[in-house]
Structures are given as structure tokens and as C-alpha cells.
Amino acid sequence: MENISLNWIDILIIIVYLLGIIWYGIKKGNQESSEDYFLAGRNMTWPIVGISLFAANIGSSTLIGLSSDAYNTNIGVYNYEWMAAVVLVFFAIFFLPFYLKTKVYTMPEFLERRYDSRSRYYFSFITIVGNVIIDTAAGLYAGNLILKILFPEVDSIVIIGLLALAAAAYTIPGGLSSVVHTEVIQALLLLAGSVLLTYFAFTEVGGWEGLMTGLDGLKDSGYLAKNSNEIMHLAGPANDPVMPWTGLLFGIPLLGFYFWANNQFMVQRVLSAKDLNHGRWGALFAGLLKLPVLFVMVFPGLVAIVLFHQTDISSLNYFTVSETGTSVLCTNLQNCPNMTYPVLIYNLLPAGVLGLVIAGLLAAMSSSISATLNSASTLITMDFVSKMNPNLSSKGLVRVGQIATVVLVILAASWAPQIEKFASLWEYLQMVLGFIAPPVVAVFLLGLFWKRANGNGAIASLVIGLLLAITLIVIKVYGYIPFISDMHFLHTAPLLLLVCMAIHAAVSLMTDPPKSESTDGLIWTKEIFTQETEELKSMAWYQNYRILAIILLAITATIVTYYF
Question: What span, in angstroms and rounded, lies between the C-alpha atoms of 119 and 101?
Fold first, then answer.
């Protein structure tokens, strides 16, 4: 593979995009009050809510992670995408009404309403740390993968710093209003770039038949362990090292529930909806947008197996970290699957289109980074600073949020290079998420559906669950214990959830029941469903979120059944 350089047309497109999106973001910013800055005035309509959710989720780290995991394994990575539609239906029915009714700014604030301040501060701190080391850092790392190829002589720290500065340029002055409006543009550009890459990839490989024939040929030659039919299956047996069906059934919904229903940087977009209906429609729209990801973001990774499995990428001068901790030059995609997406775009796309796709990738990166920066600064401001200084003015809260964003950018940029120590970007994202999610999901689930759950049980579950999660991460990364080290993280996560729920229930039953102010109006009941049913009778079918949810689930089931 020859050294990569950009045509002047590509460079012009990228520069125009970067300057244009910063200008547009600042123009759409709103910092008149803390509600304007952190929740965009709670005035967003459902298309913006849905597209914003999609764009914040399909960041550069996810885009690169999907293609690299497909190259490395099979289409099983798509399970994380279609499951989002199912989880968002559950979220829209059960959780969203309580979030919007209480008019909270943050998910930790909701925990305080349901339990007490201990849960709020603890979960807020953990969420801030997670936003920095998982979401923001991963987005910066992914952007560095693309640009490092073009500028190999520039240190990664410099590239990451510039990317962080570009994303923060409109997030700091404009707040969530800037973020969600720019995400609409970025999502459209990202989808356009993905469709174009898929078109050129399938053209090069000879269409669907060429892809299947190529995969079968590699199986016959001994290069692949599976044929095309096996690679196109979403899940394997319970002992499958990549995607066990038991992990799909129990593990992925758990991760999805945390990500879509409890994670501040995702839920914050729905909190900005103008009313409950727009919030629900937006959530379902985001679920619908996730379904085509298989065709435009996962399949190109399979095409790369056929086209580039023998490609020498050493000329790209990209280094990975070996198992011994030493830096090793990447020579092929087998030892550097994170390079799958860059290899695809730099080899297949013509001038002009390449610039558009790189701009789309940078759009994805800035979407995810700006989303996490804004949500984390919201947590710092509303869950800590406003409590320590309740007399701080609305303008003062906005200023604190801006300062917090600057600090978070620096921390994320400092951590991003550490991600290279993991086998792949997707493994990093899912493994860490798989260990931190169970304690949080346990607290939210029991809090919503079990009136007896109290603050003592919640904090015990959160603290012990986190200690167990840290222990498991250390064992997975740095040590080896039989059974524990060999267990798939999609099995470990649901088992940890059961442990956390048992701790929560046991401690709650051994201590005093919660006060009525912690449960009144915050527990889901059958009466709520009945009342809502009457309200929905007066709405047209296309406005009834239940009918829309059934349609979404039917489309999802059709796709999943075909590839299962």
C-alpha cells in the first residue's frame, strides 16, 4: 500500500466543512440561561431529537469499530445496533415519562429523587469518568487513526489535541443547542459518506455475489475458519468466542439499556424534547436509523477481508502495542484491525468523495465528542457546583459548564493514546462498558419497578458493583484466573447484574423502607398504562407511539430473522 496523500479537492472539502460546522454551531448556540445551555431550552422536535441521538451514538469510534470488528470476526457486531431499537422502545414506554415529568437535568439527579443524594453524587462521578475515558477519548483516538496516515510525521498527541480543540470550539460557547443542531448536519454527512463507501466497496468486489464467492474462496484456502454463510449469521453457540447466543439474549440488552436509558450523554438529548410525544417519537426514530447500519457500516468490513487481507500496510507507519507492551509496526489488517476503515476509504474512494467521507468521519467524531463534553459538563455543573453554591446565578452556571468542558477536553486527550493497548477499539468500548453498566442498570430497574427499593440498597449496589467491575477489568487485562478470565464479557455482565440486584434487594429489605416522597409518582404502575391508553385513543395512528413502536419492532424482527 503506497503512501497516502489527499487531492486539493479533498483538502478543500475538509477545510470548508470544519470551518462551516464551527460557524454553524456557534450561530445555533444558546446560553441565555442554564436550561438553554444544558438542555437547549427543552424545545427540540422529534426529528432533531432522533437524528441527534443517532449522530451522538454513531461517532467515529463506532464507525471504525463496526468495520474493524466485522473484518476481524463476522456480522455479529450488528447485534449492538438492532438491539438499540428494542431498548429504545422499552425506554420510551417506561422510563422517558418519569424523566420528563420530573424535569431533571441529569440522570444522577433522577436517582436523588428516587433514592437520595449519595446515589446522585456517586453515579455522577462515575458517569463523568466514563464519559472521559470511554466516549470522548475513544472519539479522539478514532480521529487520530484517520489523520495519522496523512500526517505520519505529526505526533499523535498533537493531532488529538487539534481534534479536541475543533470539537470544543462550538460546544463551549453554544452548549447543547449547538451540539444538537450540528449533529443533524453531521448525521446526514455521515450517512452520505457511508453509503458512498458501501457503493464503491461492492463495485470493487463484484457485488454481493463477488463478496460471497470471495469469502468462500478464503475459507477453502484456509485463510478463514468460516464460510460466507457462517459469517453472515448474527450469533453462534453458547461457547462461541465472538457472539454467543446467550450473550446476545442477556448481555447486549443490558449494555444497550445502560447506554440508551441511563447514560447522561444520550438521555440528555431526549430531555431537550419539547414534550413527551416528541421525546418518544425521537427515540423511536433513532431506533429506526440504527437498522440500516448493517448495510452501510458493517458490510464494508467484510468487503475488506476479500480485497485487503494480503495488503501490506507498513507504509502507513502506524504502530500498535503488542502483548509484551512494546510498540510494533502494523504490517497487515490481521494485527491492526482498527485500520480497516482507513484502508477502505484511502484505497477505494476517488478524489472529492474521499474528502467528503473524511469530513463525514470528522463529523462523527465531533458529534460524539461534543455530546460527551456537554453532558459531562452538565453533570459537573448541576450535580456538584450548583449544590456547593446554590446562590450561583444562571449565567454563573453556564460559565462553570464552559470551564468544565475545557478541563474535560484536556483529560480526554491525555487518555486517548492508552486505547491502543487494547486488541481493538470495539473491544475496548464494549468490555469497559460491560463491567460498569450492571450496577447502574440494577439501581434504575429496581427503582422504577419495586417500591421497596431504598437509598441504602442503591448505594450498596453501586459501590460493591463498581469494586467488582474494577476487579474483573484488572483480571481481564493484566492477569489470569481460570473461568473468570475465560468467560465472555457478554456473560460476565448479566451475572454481575444479578449480583448487584441481589445486593440492592437484600440491603433494602434489611433497612427501613423509602419515604413516600421518594416513591410517589416515580414507580411504574398498571394505572399509568391504563390512563395513557385512554389518552392515546384521541390520537391518529401515526402519532400513537405504541403503534409506531410495533412497526419498528416488526421491521427489526424481519432483518434479524433473515440473518440469524
Answer: 20
Dump pLDDT digits (tens) for 174-220. 565 666 677 778 778 888 888 999 999 999 999 999 999 999 999 98
The pLDDT of residue 177: 63
Cβ neighbours around 106 below 10 Å, total: 25
- Residue 224: pLDDT band (50, 70, 90) is confident
- How far, CA to CA in Å, does 431 sit from each of 44, 428, 435, 563? 33, 6, 7, 25
What does 264-311 look like in DSSP terms, one character per residue? HHHHHHHHTBSSHHHHHHHHHHHHHHHTTHIIIIIHHHHHHHHHHTT-
Cβ atoms of 144 and 423 within 8 Å: the answer is no
> Does position 368 have pLDDT exceeding 80, yes or no?
no
What's the CATH superfamily of 8-310+337-423? Sodium/glucose cotransporter (1.20.1730.10)
Residue 47 has pLDDT above 70, yes or no: yes
Output the pLDDT for position 320: 67
Which of 212, 235, 236 shows the shortest CA–CA distance to 224?
212
Residue 119, C-alpha cell as written in the block: 446515589
* CA-based nearest residue to 24, from 185, 226, 220: 185
Q: Is the dihedral of CA 380, 383, 386, 388 positive or negative?
A: negative
Q: Helix, strand or coil for residue 538? A: coil
Q: How far apart are CA 286 and CA 362, in angstroms?
A: 21
Q: Which helix (H) or strand (E) element contains residue 327?
A: strand 327-329
Q: Which residues 6+ apart lie within 8 Å of 5 measured at CB?
A: 150
- In angstroms, the Cα distances linking 393 to 287, 385, 387, 399 are 38, 11, 12, 10
| Count of CB atoms situated within 10 Å of the CB of 421 | 13
pLDDT in tens, 274-292: 889 999 999 999 999 999 9
Q: What is the pLDDT of residue 44?
A: 80
What is the residue extent of each domain of the chain? 8-310+337-423
- The residue among 549 and 117 whose pLDDT is bigger is 549
Q: How many residues does the chain have?
A: 564
Percentages (nearest 5) of helix, strand, coil residues in the chain: 75, 0, 20
**CA gap 501, 513 in Å, rounded:** 17
> Which pLDDT score, from 0 to 100, does residue 3 have?
57
Q: Which residues contact 286 (CB under 8 A, 6 or more apart)?
A: 49, 50, 51, 53, 54, 57, 84, 88
- Per DSSP, the chain holds a count of helices (H) and strands (E) of 27, 2
pLDDT grade, residue 548 (50/70/90)? very high
Amino acid (one-letter) located at 429: L
Residue 367: pLDDT over 80: no
**pTM (two decimals):** 0.85
Residue 318 backbone zone (phi > 0: left; psi -120 to 50: alpha; other: beta): beta
SS (H, E, C) 128-172: HHHHHHHHHHHHHHHHHHHHHHHCCCCCHHHHHHHHHHHHHHHHH
Judge contact between 227 and 215, C-beta under 8 A. Answer: yes
Neighbours of 375 (CB within 10 A): 29
